[in-house]
């Protein structure tokens, strides 16, 4: 590095710019990786909290036939 008394040359400025650019790229990739980790963790927590892994009880009519129930509103396709 140059001291305060001598003006910076084009080479000095180029070195500083290159170092800054490399640093910014490293920080950006680190940030992207961290963001991906956070997104994955949140998705996993959401999936665990919203999924019901218990099977639904089998319900039958008195004659032994299956009970056909309407689809819950949150499972319906839009427009149905």
Structure notes:
This protein has 80 residues and is mainly α. The relative contact order is 0.05. The chain has one helix spanning 10-50. The longest helix is centred in the middle third of the chain and has 41 residues, at 10-50.
Number of helices: 1
Residues in helices, as a percent range: 40-55%
Mean pLDDT: 71
What coarse outline follows from CA principal-axis ratios? rod-shaped
Order of helices and strands: H
Gap from first CA to last CA: 70 Å
**Beta-strand percentage range:** under 5%
* Low-pLDDT residue intervals, each spanning 5 or more residues: none
Total number of strands: 0
Kindly provide the radius of gyration, computed on alpha-carbon positions and rounded to a whole number of angstroms.
Answer: 30 Å
Class from secondary-structure proportions: mainly alpha
Largest sheet: none
Short account of what is shown:
By secondary structure, the chain is mainly alpha-helical.
Task: Describe the SSE topology.
Blueprint: H1 10-50
Feature tags:
80 residues, mainly alpha, 1 helix
